[in-house]
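Summary for the steering committee. One of the milestones for this cycle was to obtain a three-dimensional model of the protein with NAP bound, which we needed before selecting residues for the alanine scan. The sequence and ligand used are listed below.
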Amino acid sequence: MSTVLVIGASRGLGLALATQYAAAGWRVIGTARSPEGLSRLQAVGAEALSLDVSDPASVSGLSWRLDGEKLDLALYVAGVMDKGDAQTPPTREAFDAVMHANVLGAMQVIPQVAPMLQEGHGTLACISSRMGSLALTQSSDAALYRISKAALNMVVRTTQAGYPDIAVVALHPGWVQTDMGGRAAPLTPRESVAAMRATLASLKPEHHGQFLSHDGSPLAW
Ligand SMILES: NC(=O)c1ccc[n+]([C@@H]2O[C@H](COP(=O)([O-])OP(=O)(O)OC[C@H]3O[C@@H](n4cnc5c(N)ncnc54)[C@H](OP(=O)(O)O)[C@@H]3O)[C@@H](O)[C@H]2O)c1
C-alpha cells in the first residue's frame, strides 16, 4: 500500500487530497492544527497528526513523530493568503503570518520529510500558485502572497538540487472553490485534486524540479 503525507489537510484542497487518496486505497497521514481539522481527517480514513507549520516547536517534533515511516508522496499544502497590494506596506504581523506558513514552514518541514521519500524514490509536491510566477505576474494584487509563493518555488528548486533521488515539483492547483479561492472560482476541489493526482501519477524525470499546473501543463517560473 502506498503512503501519502498531506501537510495542512484540515479543509480545502488538503482535505480533498486526503479524501481522494484514502478513497483510492492509499494510507493517508494528514496534518491539521485544530481538533475540528483532526476529526475531519479521521472521518475520511486518514491518520491525523497535530501540526502548526508556523510554530517551530510544533514542526521540530515532526520527524520524531513520523519515525521509521517510508513515504511514497508528501504534499505541502498549508498556506495563507494576504490580499494587500504593492501600494500597501504589509504589517510585520501580516508578513510573518504569510511567510511563516507559506515559506518557513516548508523549509522546516521538508528536511524532515524528504529523507523518508528517498528509499522509494518518492515525490514531494509543494502547492504553489500561478500567482507566484515572476514571469506571469502583471498585477500587484496580493503582493505578499505572490512573493511568498515565489519564495516557495525556490524552495522547490533548492530541494530538488539537495535531494536528487526524489521528484520535487511546484504544483498550481488552478483557481479552486475553497475558503481561499472563493465561490467564483471555476474549479471544485474534487476537480482540482483529481487533476493534480493524475499529474503526480504521471511525472517523468523531465518534470523533476519543475513548476506545473494541476493538469500537468508547464508554468513559467
Ligand atoms: N484555492 C485556490 O484557488 C488556490 C490557488 C492557488 C494556490 N492555492 C494554494 O493551495 C493551498 C491550499 O489552499 P486552499 O485553497 O485549500 O485554502 P484554504 O481552504 O484556506 O485552506 C488552507 C489550509 O492551510 C492550512 N494552514 C494555514 N496555516 C497553517 C499553519 N500555520 N499550520 C498548519 N496548517 C495551516 C489551513 O489549516 P487551518 O484550518 O488550521 O487554518 C487549511 O488546511 C495553499 O497553499 C494555497 O496557497 C490555492
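Key point for the committee: The beta strands are 3-7, 27-32, 47-50, 73-76, 123-127, 167-172, 211-213.
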